[in-house]
Amino acid sequence: MGSDSNNKGGLIDNGRSHLSSGRRWVIKIGSALLTDDGTRLNAEGIQGWVAQIVALRSQGVQPILVSSGAIAAGMTRLGWASRPKAEHELQVAAAVGQMGLSQTWQSAFAEHGIETAQVLLTHADLSNRQRYLNARSALNSMMGLGVIPVVNENDCVVTDEIRFGDNDTLGALVVNLVEADALILLTDQDGLYTADPRKHPDAVLVDQRKASDPALDAMAGESKGRLGRGGMFTKLRAARLAARSGARTVIAGGRIERVVERLHQGDPLGTLLLPDEERTVARKRWLAGHLQMKGKLTLDAGAVRALRQSGSSLLPVGVCSVDGTFKRGEMVVCVDSQGREVARGLVNYSSEEVVKVLGLPSQQMASVLGFTGEPELVHRDNMVMV
Ligand code: GLU
């Protein structure tokens, strides 16, 4: 096992055991695994991962799957031996392959009585704040209903300039989106090695490091998979992105027996990449520092108490007045009747909509607004207390 010169700090010490207590995991499976190295869609493999994910779920973890393999599966269905270069051909391969991919996941989970949902995202969905919140609330609702989201990039409508590029990055962004505790990158190698093991037989597997460790860059190199877009380089970058919201990443061999379940038990498989700070700290820093304040909500005393003492979300019933013009997803400050700042957070409704529902119980919002949205004006998860 690789030496761990970076073994300092609390996070490193409890790195593996901490995985066992994670409640939400994003599991990304790469094209080489899903298509049996590009020969065909690996239905038996998929059944095996599904059984592991089902077992994980029975341990109380909410799994989200990020599944690559659409383009590779499409290539085999279309009888194309090598990955096409032309954008329109890639789009066709993705669209053809995505059908079989979804179907295979769907029927494998159905054997266990579990519903799946196909979620195809593009960069625009996560960079636009409203769509970001929409995607977030859709994923949260699916998980709340026990449905397992199966996410991929919407390869049919993206071009090179506007794509995530690889599903490692997409997985990390989904981690940030739903505030997952862990990103599990399953691949055809056992983890990150100190050098490319195909060229350096003496390379050893890295056990655990901080994702930010600069020494990792040279180890990840520029290696690329043959079928998908990712490689160790994109996996390391994804781990760093996931670390920004305090999540741990494991890069592990997807063919290792019961790899997902064993990682959950704390077995030292693959390479664990740790964040510099815990999830809540990372999230609060992001909320506190990064966004421009667009409006102000003045709360009554009951709402201030509920926020401070019960850790509740902000409901319209507790809001007395609104200032400023804002859209769904923008940052607002919440103040008490004396104008003292209580909290700040991302608002679920525009200022025009908030004006209409001020002081109302959440159940009346739908009839006033003409649509059913979230019952909270600002959800607790999107709020920091000041
Ligand atoms: N979205 C691509 C596909 O499903 C895979 C991207 C990747 O390989 O990371 O084919």
Search tags:
disordered N terminus; 8-stranded mixed sheet; Archaeosine Trna-guanine Transglycosylase, Chain: A, domain 4; alpha/beta; single chain; 16 helices; about 375 residues
Topology:
Elements: H1 10-13, H2 15-21, E1 24-29, H3 31-34, H4 43-58, E2 62-67, H5 70-78, H6 87-110, E3 116-121, H7 123-127, H8 129-144, E4 148-153, H9 167-178, E5 182-187, E6 208-210, H10 215-220, H11 232-244, E7 248-253, H12 259-264, E8 271-274, H13 279-290, E9 293-299, H14 301-310, E10 319-324, E11 331-335, E12 341-347, H15 351-357, H16 365-369, E13 378-385
Parallel strand pairs: 1-2, 1-5, 2-4, 3-4, 5-7, 6-8, 9-11
Antiparallel strand pairs: 7-8, 9-10, 11-12, 12-13
Q: What percentage of amino acids are in beta strands?
A: 15-25%
CATH topology of the largest domain: Carbamate kinase
Order of helices and strands: HHEHHEHHEHHEHEEHHEHEHEHEEEHHE
Question: What is the makeup of the main sheet?
Answer: 8 strands, mixed
Can you give the helix content as a percent range? 40-55%
- Biggest sheet, spatial arrangement of strands: 3-4-2-1-5-7-8-6
Name the hetero compounds present: glutamic acid
Distance between the termini: 45 Å
Using the CA coordinates, give the radius of gyration: 22 Å
Q: How many domains, in number, for the residues?
A: 2
Overall shape: it is globular
User: In the CATH hierarchy, what is the superfamily of the largest domain?
Assistant: Acetylglutamate kinase-like
CATH architect. name of the largest domain: 3-Layer(aba) Sandwich
Instruction: Describe the oligomeric state of these chains in a short phrase.
Output: single chain
**What's the total helix number?**
16
SS content category: alpha/beta
CATH class of the largest domain, named Alpha Beta
Q: What's the count of strands? A: 13
What is the typical, i.e. mean, pLDDT? Answer: 88
Low-confidence stretches: 1-13
